Amino acid sequence: MRSFGFFAALTAVFMFSFLFSACEKGPGDDPEAGKGRLRLKFYANPSEVSKVSMELPDTNDFLLTIRKENGDIVFDGLYCDAEEEFSLDAGSYHVYVRSSDFEVPAFSEPQFGDEQCTVVPAGGDASVHLQCRQINSGVRLDVSPDFLTEYPGGVLFLQSDAGRLMYAYTEKRIAYFKPGSVSLVMMNEGKENVLLTRVLAAQEVMTLRVAVSHSDRAEKGISISLDTTRIWLDESFVIGGEDNKGAAHDNALTVSQAKASIGMKDVWVNGFIVGGDLTSSSASFNPPFESATNLIIAARKSVSSRESCIAVQLPSGDVRDMLNLAEHPEMLGREVCLNGDIVESYFGLVGLKNVSDYVLK
Known about the structure:
Elements: H1 2-19, E1 35-42, E2 63-68, E3 73-78, E4 85-89, E5 91-98, E6 106-107, E7 112-120, E8 125-130, E9 133-134, E10 137-143, H2 145-150, E11 155-160, E12 163-167, E13 175-177, E14 180-188, E15 191-200, E16 205-216, E17 219-232, H3 255-259, E18 267-276, E19 294-298, E20 310-313, H4 318-323, E21 335-346, E22 349-360
């Protein structure tokens, strides 16, 4: 019995270490030590532009999972539905945000997100600043015409441990994989040959040129070269920076981007209606509401901090008639795109004035 007990204890210790090998224990790991607060926020720097031109996803639509050290899930859902502040037992937590769940190789499926471990101290605060960066990797093939001529029946595949994709000679899309080993395989005349294997890191997108090399007319071989001009290794993909960002409601600025874009006019801003009844020092986040002339929007519907919001002036007309919380309390929590001018201060907050149009989501 002692041997069995020792084995069981050893197994439990191993599983515990495996689940959270990336997280270090902190002084607040004892659940009896009390509770602390966890806050999550995305970095946003619209002035910095990624080297790669692509449409980046809205972080409000990201999937968020917060898992405690013992494996218990604290939250699993959309980032926009998460609380602005979590009250949690002191201890270590794993935070994972992603634009989508990505398990098997796929074309045109870049995955963005971040993954961090943090310690919530008893009676204290832990803040996690998340990045919107690509967390999978990609490969694009550039197949020369002479390869098609020499191997008309050949078929190219890109494969990893998670699966494989057939890559047509005329394919132009990027094939995305989880970080790790990716192999280029050719099937010709019933035989498969691994032509090349590369280890790709997160954020790395590699272009391979596939051609036929001739040492003389009697001999030929497959030539594979790395196009170094197409290796994209940005350390972070920063939200925003696109020239036309904010020009249309389906490409609206986020709340964070709007705060960094004071002075822009006739621009679309996206956010959640979280309150109203603004004064120079306060705001109301709960009904009933009295004022029909203003409201506040935030990046998440759970926000209850005035400083996290943008103040919106509701001019007389359709915008005020449809959105004001005094007459329409059901608008609380709704996601909306608003077109107006971003000003430095409206009731002491970055504001949106001269609102001329809106789109509810």
